[in-house]
Amino acid sequence: MSDVVTLERQGAIAVVRVNNPPVNALGIAVREGLQDSFKAAEADPQVKAIVLVCEGSTFIAGADIKEFGKPPKSPGLPEVVSGIEAGSKPSVAVIHGTALGGGLEVAVSCHYRIALKSAKVGLPEVKLGLLPGAGGTQRLPRLVGVEKALDMIVSGNPISASEALELGVIDELVEGDLTAAGIAYAEKLIADGKGARRTGERTDKLDGVDNAALVAAKRAEVEKKTPGLFSPQRCISAVEASFTMPLEDGLKRERELFGECLVSPQRSALVHAFFTERLASKIDDLPKDTPVREINSAAVIGGGTMGVGIALCFANVGIPVKILEVSDEAMDKAMERCRDTYMMSVKRGSLTEDAMNKRLTLVEGVTDYADLSGVDLVVEAVFEEMGVKQKVFEALDTHCKPGAILASNTSSLNLNQIADFTKRPQDVVGLHFFSPANVMRLLEVVRGEKTANDVLATAMAIGKKLKKVAVPVGVCDGFVGNRMVFQYGRESEFLLEEGATPAQVDGALRKFGMAMGPFAMRDLSGLDIGLSIRTRQRQTLPAEFKLPTILDKMAAAGMLGQKTGKGFYVYEKGSRTPLDNPELPAILEAASKEQGIERRELTDEYILERTLFALINEGAKILEEGIAQRSSDIDVIYINGYGFPAHQGGPMFYADSLGLDHVYNRICEFHKQHGAWWKPAPLLEKLAKEGRKFADL
Ligand code: 3H9
């Protein structure tokens, strides 16, 4: 028997126990252990039923993702689960935490399933560019019907134990000790004379339903929603086999489709995204035993959209939070904004009114800094102007207790300067939330020159607590995300001067997988933000760094984006659907003429190179300066904060996949054609010449 799977007998019950921290993933040792244990229990005449239970915080959370791409080792999971299902003695999976992917496939190959109420089950393989490859696409439809199985497999979203009980995935909800609950359930099965009950042999949920129509509808939905994704359509084909083929053939078809997904570039990009999101929370030069300060209360300075969004993040996880505003009137407005924001979730059905009211009791509006004397953490979210920040931080320094963490949500100002407004710069850190703060997952944690280690560690921990993806970054204008996006935005505008339309640029980037094109995004956030940055840049940049003039021309014509109903697109009253702006071509032509540019046809490929290579070149500079710890942290920031498609792995992974020599050569050409902005990053040049990748650093 293996170390990670043990077998013991308690009376007539064999208990198979998996103990493979952190998440009991199904690496080779676990697969061998499961196969050997179930075989031994089957062969033991004293055993009448088998219980499968896991140690630690969760049931089996899936195949071991680290093994993907390596030579396969026998026994494979399909063989293991088929063996479990074929057993003649009733088997019971006891689920706690999450039974995901291969974990749920193991559970549904057991003959019965019981679970703690807090448990979740799901088949998230699609999120890794895969499909359930150990019978999940064949057994789940037999258990819950094709419609629900398609929903679960194509979305990859887990369901609660209560829903699983309703659907028949779980047979009973239990409480208390897992092993005891499993044994009690197994003893009852024996007493009731219940034997093996194999999901694979069922057809009742497949019969009498127009499954072909369900499949066709799902195909059309997926084609519309995620046209560029490889695995969702294969998930559907695999589920289709569950009702068009006998089990054995269906399992074979599933294996073929799984193999196609396994070798797809999207699978490697999505697995990269999974692991690097977890890696981003690890700070290389922070000692592992760095203490973390306790954060039991928080405050936010400023009750605008951003401040309120941040405050709600705290309330959402049960941390009482105060919002400080300048007057009673402003404070009342901020509190109203909190309720309105929550009401949107209530209307969408993602929050109950009860839960909203409970969360609102955690939010308190105040107008006096003295009311913040007891809080553990303050996040400043006031106007982006150094003078305003100075006043706030001086007041915080006066009123906050020693040891309180003083954070700024600045998106571009110098955090070191902000820290120096206080007599405790070691307690100052940046917490750069993204708008809307209560929705967006990304949090840039800005480490100032004097930020203490325990403050940084606490900021990262609080990010996790708030369910954010916290990524440490250094101090520079725009930190990582916005500094790079300046390059991307500017090049998009140059493309308009050269001959493209907003719809063409947005379309090319959407086809690539970006959640939104740069111009639809500009219209959403308002052109005035970009314009004020441009004005600042014009005052500070050397002359060789030319800037496009389209934003200025549009602002002069009152086109500021959605808020004025007109920007790069026009919007009908009450609608967010972008329509062509009939006044824009004249503005673009005037801008081209002014620059002496003859407008020309641009290909989608060219548009991608000009915009994405601008991101990559700046990313390389950021890496070299140590503003980001590793190239994959930049990928995490772009995927979680800027709508970069996870299936492309992030800008730096994408560059590696194209080959850095190619990227470097194109950037050199752009440098010749378009001047100073395109000076290749020395790090990119070095890696390209050495035939290396960003991932090798
Ligand atoms: C599959 O099953 C395919 C089959 O259908 C077919 C096969 C033929 N493998 O997320 P956390 C690590 S595909 C290896 O921070 P949490 C993770 O990297 C799989 N390692 O914890 C981290 O390591 P580190 C389908 C894994 O409590 C540590 O565990 N399953 C795996 O916030 C803790 O992770 C999935 O897609 C894995 N499968 O969340 C489930 N999972 O400490 C993926 C985690 O070194 N996993 N690690 O950074 C999850 O969704 C979450 O990890 C889970 C726990 C919800 C389980």
From TrEMBL:
Pathway: Lipid metabolism; fatty acid beta-oxidation. It comes from Halopseudomonas pelagia. GO terms for biological process: fatty acid metabolic process; lipid catabolic process. Residues 298-473 form the 3-hydroxyacyl-CoA dehydrogenase NAD binding domain. This is 3-hydroxyacyl-CoA dehydrogenase. It is found in: Peroxisome. In the N-terminal section; belongs to the enoyl-CoA hydratase/isomerase family. Belongs to the enoyl-CoA hydratase/isomerase family. Residues 478-571, 606-692 form the 3-hydroxyacyl-CoA dehydrogenase C-terminal domain.
